[in-house]
Design goal:
Its cofactor is FAD. This is Peroxisomal acyl-coenzyme A oxidase 1. GO terms for molecular function: acyl-CoA oxidase activity; FAD binding; fatty acid binding. The protein is an all-alpha fold. Helices cover 69% and strands 0% of the residues. The chain contains 16 helices and no strands. Helix 2 crosses helix 5 (99-119), helix 2 (42-70) packs across helix 9 (189-217) and helix 5 crosses helix 9. The longest helix has 34 residues, at 2-35. It is elongated, with a radius of gyration of 25 Å. It binds flavin-adenine dinucleotide. Flavin-adenine dinucleotide is lined by residues 91, 94-95, 97-98, 100-101, 186, 189.
């Protein structure tokens, strides 16, 4: 049970790193284009970075709280170190653009991409190509997930097709709703939010899948690539599972495919178990930064908890400050206790 709560978060962390690489490449290429006066990619960089900010910082804030719960009562202790990580990351959901508000930026952009697709499909930007398929309504609504047996879920093309279909459906539904007479944009906030997260999750999925290909091309060992592939699979399949309603709503995924999806996730989690500690150690966070009795390099959690409690200021005296002056007189006002 703990593994099924924790391991998808490890996969999320690596997917976020992969999306960070994608974002940096896009940003650097945009900068060099801007130097030549070409502003073509500005809108896409803005839309994708807005969406990713919202999705990734939401993952981070909910993830910190989930980690606290995974550690039970010890997680709630100040000495777990979670409280300072939580207080550092939670406001990221608000600053640099409130996470709910930001989703309107990427949703508006995708609506514009649908318009571009109807007039100049070749101008649709790389991460929005899926909107083109939605224009042929009959073919798009008849589209179904290609999984026949459970292992098909491990095929990156199958995974990406699922993310593209879901985001495509949401953007075409938003476009239709936006065209209604008397439409009030603020009434579509929730639809924008769903679409933006669907699109960002597609970008994350594509980035993590591309990241595995990149690792292979860089000549990393077969064993390392295999671990990265498992992480990528776990991220994509767990993300699909977490929003399964979106995939079932138009029958893209069948109930039988849902069952095989869960089995694959379970099997991936079992395979990742041996590498989980190394995958986190790879971040090389120093103990000083973690400031945690539970998360230090030697794993000697109970001794450290004990040492922290011994050193705590409040434990340096038998009673708290003010006890003798204020509390003791009240407790003893009727003389010594008779028990
Ligand atoms: C720790 C921290 C550090 C910060 N640092 C800085 C800084 O260095 N510099 C700086 O300039 N600012 C800073 N800020 C401010 C931050 O950028 C704003 O708090 C943030 O942009 C949200 O704006 P707001 O507080 O006015 O909330 P509001 O915009 O009033 O939002 C309140 C609520 O209403 C919702 N909402 C608002 N408008 C809409 C809409 N049109 N449609 C739907 N829902 C809507 C939001 O989703 C939110 O839930 C910081 C904030 C925090 C928490």
């Amino acid at each position: 049970m703990v593994q099924s709560r924790l391991f998808p978060m490890i996969a999320q962390v690596y997917a976020i790193l992969a999306a960070g690489n994608t974002m940096r490449d896009m940003y650097e290429s945009m900068l060099s284009e801007l130097m030549k006066g070409d502003m073509t990619s500005l809108a896409e960089v803005h839309a994708i970075s807005s969406g990713l900010k919202s999705t990734c910082s939401t993952f981070a804030a909910t993830g910190v709280e989930d980690c606290r719960k995974i550690m039970g009562g010890h997680g709630y202790s100040y000495y777990s170190g979670i409280s300072h990580i939580w207080s550092t990351y939670v406001p990221s959901n608000t600053y640099e653009g409130d996470n709910f508000l930001l989703t309107q930026q990427s949703a508006r952009y995708l609506l514009k991409q649908i318009k571009v697709a109807t007039t100049d499909p070749e101008l649709v930007t790389p991460f929005s190509k899926y909107v083109i398929k939605t224009l042929d309504r009959d073919t798009f609504t008849a589209e179904r997930c290609a999984v026949k047996s459970g292992v098909d879920w491990l095929n990156p093309e199958v995974q990406l097709a699922a993310f593209e279909h879901r985001a495509g459906r949401l953007v075409s539904e938003l476009a239709m709703a936006a065209m209604q007479e008397d439409m009030v944009w603020s009434d579509l906030n929730l639809e924008c939010w769903r679409l933006s997260h669907a699109h960002s999750q597609y970008v994350l999925a594509k980035s993590t899948i591309d990241g595995v290909g990149r690792a292979r091309a860089q000549g990393l060992s077969a064993a390392t690539v295999a671990v990265l592939k498992r992480l990528s699979d776990l991220f994509t399949l767990h993300t699909i599972q977490a929003s399964l309603g979106d995939f079932l709503e138009d029958y893209f995924v069948s109930p039988v495919q849902c069952q095989s999806l869960r089995q694959q996730i379970k099997s991936l989690q079992e395979q990742i178990a041996d590498d989980a500690v190394t995958l986190m150690d790879a971040f090389d966070f120093p103990d000083q930064y973690l400031d945690s009795a539970l998360g230090s390099y030697d794993g000697n959690a109970y001794q450290r908890l004990w040492d922290c409690a011994q050193k705590a200021d409040i434990n340096q005296r038998q009673v708290v400050d003010g006890y003798e002056e204020y509390i003791r007189p009240i407790l003893h006002q009727h003389g010594p206790a008779k028990l």
